[in-house]
Design a protein that fits this description.
Elements (H helix, E strand, L loop, with lengths): L5 H22 L3 H5 L2 E8 L10 E2 L3 H9 L9 E10 L2 E11 L5 E13 L2 E8 L2 H9 L8
Parallel strand pairs: 1-6
Antiparallel strand pairs: 1-2, 3-4, 4-5, 5-6
Length: about 150
């Protein structure tokens, strides 16, 4: 069991709030807001490399990712309800139920595990994992003209 003094607890809480701010800005499709929370050499590790999503390196690509998501969603319609959280050193781990109704009426529901590495008050990296079949069936197949 780790014993944490008041200063340690404040640092822990700041890291946790930084990670939660990231997912809040993501649900609002706020790429500029996300960029404000990450380091210049930020790395975004996407779930399911088999789906063809390469890791993103640097702040600049965040806008491309968010702009790619945006056409399907109204800002704030995608919800991420954190169900578990942990902070250990530089690592913040969040588990969240992710859900929402897309503009075309499709319903998206998935569970994500998100791992943030935080240093110097900024997010250095973000790793997400989720059910790739759900991602493919709901988010990718329809764009390819395949039946869901």
């Amino acid at each position: 069991m780790c014993i944490c003094d008041e200063e340690c607890e404040v640092k822990r809480e700041k890291k946790l709030q930084l990670a939660k701010a990231y997912i809040e800005r993501l649900t609002m499709l706020d790429s500029t807001g996300i960029q404000d929370l990450v380091s210049d050499d930020f790395i975004w590790h996407f779930t399911g490399p088999s789906l063809g999503f390469p890791d993103l390196y640097g702040k600049a690509g965040i806008r491309d990712v968010v702009d790619g998501i945006a056409p399907g969603w109204d800002p704030g319609e995608l919800k991420m309800d954190v169900t578990r959280e942990a902070v250990d050193g530089a690592n913040v781990i969040l588990e969240a139920d992710v859900h929402g109704t897309m503009r075309d009426g499709r319903r998206y529901e998935n569970v994500y595990l998100m791992w943030f590495e935080v240093s110097g008050g900024l997010i250095q990296s973000f790793r997400e994992t989720a059910d790739t079949k759900v991602i493919f069936d709901v988010l990718i197949k329809p764009h390819r003209g395949e039946a869901t």
